[in-house]
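Worked example 3 (structure in, sequence out).
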């Protein structure tokens, strides 16, 4: 990714946060695919936003910042591959929830192992104190930037 900044301008903090996120995202996805789960990046970005108890399509689309149609297409693909299922919403029988299946949980387990591996690498690079400070700072920023908390 090429970043164009005016000469003498430091790279923005947002970009500095995006670069390690994208690095992690690519490595996690590669590990998931290598483990036999051929999930695309677009599918993964929707899949990772599913609530543990299931999500309605409109909520999922909003969380993934895609249209309802795009989310529906990606969920259809994930459903055909056996990673998610649609079930009746117990709060509203007319509505459907999208839930992770056992096959989907297998992919999540692979992703979590790789995520932990990467975070351990970062902690070795930064040191325990700086790594803990980074986590605290990012959690504090989440309080004012995450609309889903």
């Amino acid at each position: 990714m090429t970043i164009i900044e005016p000469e003498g301008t430091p790279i923005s903090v947002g970009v500095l946060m995006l670069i390690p996120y994208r690095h992690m995202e690519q490595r996690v996805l590669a590990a998931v695919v290598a483990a036999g789960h051929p999930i695309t990046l677009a599918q993964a970005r929707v899949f990772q936003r599913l609530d543990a108890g299931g999500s309605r399509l409109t909520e999922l689309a909003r969380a993934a910042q895609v249209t309802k149609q795009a989310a529906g297409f990606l969920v259809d693909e994930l459903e055909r591959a056996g990673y998610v299922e649609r079930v009746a919403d117990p709060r509203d029988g007319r509505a459907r929830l999208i839930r992770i299946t056992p096959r989907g949980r297998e992919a999540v387990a692979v992703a979590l192992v790789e995520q932990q591996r990467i975070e351990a690498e970062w902690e070795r690079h930064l040191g325990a104190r700086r790594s803990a400070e980074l986590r605290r700072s990012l959690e504090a920023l989440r309080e004012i930037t995450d609309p889903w908390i």
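Notes: The chain is about 60% helix and 10% strand. The longest strand covers residues 92-100.
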